[in-house]
Amino acid sequence: MLSNILYILLAIVMLGIIVTVHEFGHYCVGRLCGIGIVEFSVGFGPRLLGWERKGIQYSLRAIPLGGYCAFVGEDEVNDDPRAMNNQPVWKRFITVLAGPFMNFVLAFVVCAIMLHFYFIAETYPIIDQVIPDQPAAQAGLMPGDHILEVNGQSLTNDSAGVSQMIQVIQAGDLSKPIDLVVDRDGEKLNYTMTAAPVTDESGQTTRYQIGIVFSSRTYNFFESIREAGSYMVETTGMMLESLKNLIFKGEGLEDTAGTVGIIAVVAQQAREGMYMVLWLIFIISLNLGIMNLLPIPALDGGRLLFLIVEAIRGKPIPPEKEGTVHAIGMVLLLGLFVVLTFHDIAKLISGGFKL
Length: 355
What we know:
The protein contains nine helices and ten strands. By secondary structure, it is α+β, with helices and mostly antiparallel strands.
């Protein structure tokens, strides 16, 4: 019970950090552009503590599920020269864009950390571990053995060599012995063994193994930075494809979750360790950045659309009209939030989410 509460609190803090980073992007760029800021808040609801500095209220509020950055004259006519409505289009545009951008920055940094510490960059046909009571251990293979040949085929000393070995084993007659030539401290040794079957829960054989773990390395610092961008692009493409299928085909609608569902999933998955915590931050932050760029009223994408229209027209849309559109969008989003919350609670009660 206590562990459940701790993981739920961890999930809430994670979501709060991700949304606060988003708002911090608005805050930083807004200040650099000289736009007046009324309040920067971490959390929602009743104010727990706060202070004022240079005319800006800084607050810590009771509900740690995000935060907000309130600008002067954001959705109203205001004569203050620092007001949002009195700034050039480009300043307002980059200030609004800075929120999703910071989510992408957070996702990139977390992705690079995951690649550097957890992802395998390359595997070698060198034995790192020998599983007890498996064919390799029974045959006499040892950690540090460098596999040179499998069934008469030479292996390259890289990931391709490992893949080649696996393909040879899986493509051959698994009832026949497997012949290996290994290098142990400069001495070539020959071993013969028969692969053992690996079964699933129903008892069906899914593959065969000899019981070794290959040596590998993670990405170095520069490789992780380089690969993080590619990994983000690939993941973004998959997210956009899923979003398109959800909108036009209804695929994945039953798996759609609100805040309660996200907290439940995060609390459940975070038990697997730091890697999963980083993975969830990466996925949620990237998803938040993408969703906020959608041209939906009340979201950053909706505000950016209004700014693009203003730039094309050469004059602003009356702030009160834009504010009304965003208010309607906010009501609809709140309605969606309520529906998803009831759905999440029902799923939680029925055991759809496991804590």
